[in-house]
Amino acid sequence: MTAPGLDLALPQQLTVIAVCALTAVVAHLALAVFNDGVRPFLLDFVHGRATRGATTAVSFGLSAGFVFGLGAPLALSTGVLNPWLLFLPTDVLGLLAPRKWLAALLGGGWGAVVVFGLDGANAVAGGLPVDVLTALRQLSTPILFLFALFPVLAITRQFGRGWGGVAGAVELALVIATMKLWPDMFAGALAMAVGVLLLIALAVAKDVRAGASPGAADGSPLASLFSTGAARLRRHLPLFVLLGAALAVLAQSHVFGGGEATGFLIARGDHTAAAQVDFYRAFGFLPLIATTALASGAYGIAGFTFVYPLGYLMPNPYAAALAGAAVFAAEVLALSAVGRFLGRLPSVRDCSEHLRAAIGETLQLALLFGSLLAANAMGGGLGILLVGGLYLLNEAMGRPVIRMAAAPAAVLAGGALLNVLYWLHLFTPPTA
Question: Where would you find the membrane-spanning parts of this chain (predicted)?
Fold first, then answer.
């Protein structure tokens, strides 16, 4: 088995470059960024209390680890692009550029680097005696199956062990039933759907029993801030409509996966399962994106990310463009209502925080486990020693590389060390 390459046709290459140029322009205007952690800082930038350079530095600091530790390894292991690799750099480049045209040029340039450079890197790495990229495919099974458990963890944290046990038993039964009865379906898709629906039902029931919360009352400072942010986004609705259309076309091209697990499903050609996974995943981030967008006046580059699953399922780029434009228009126009809704249903708002934390926990375990499998494939015990040792050293040093990205980054570094040892005649790959 060899590592998949990034074999893009000319229309796909042009789509990637154009989308990167557009997202960089949007970031330059401080209208949207992909990194949720950067969005709150844009409030000061928009009001002139922070410089472009300082905001760029924040964006780079919060994004670099995800680009090189998560986005690049996932793209190399699947042959499918992802938002960490494309949009985190365009956040930084767009904020860095002092002019709109320069932002477009830099963003498009990054898209070209990814399109033409990643395949070259894939070819070079595939020719090494220790094949790191093929080993990285070991990440797929842990990510796909452990990711299905995130609703169980969220339910346990928010509603206790009893409901967590029920959710776990139901999900396990559904995974087994799916594997037995519908072997062509991704085994975790139905389990995730039931888990997310159970969590939302429990949250709504709790809020109904407790009665409506007053939330952000009209005329309060928070409501005033939210209305200002929503009005700023509505003024730029045509640009968001264009962004939604472009993102949907990119997703429809099937060279892009919006989530951590989605790239592996896109690579398998299972677009329906990919749409299901990204649809459920969106609920974990919706309240965060809505509240930070309303507070800062800057939206998410992918909106609520519903544009991803919609794009995967569209039959052609024209239908995808129309659907993506409609979704983004509806999202921007509905932001104020979403903010008021979340304010009145605190348990529903809180469940998204538990979902997001659970997604992070499942992925951290999946990435660590998958990385150790990759280490074993590359170098057996010595590979596990190098990759596991680098991961533990990062922990001991206070995590200079963020935990989510540390294990895949350790695979890349460990693979490089194993190749050096091979050239020094100190190591023989298990498959050589």
Answer: 14-34, 104-124, 136-155, 162-179, 185-205, 237-256, 285-308, 320-343, 363-393, 405-424
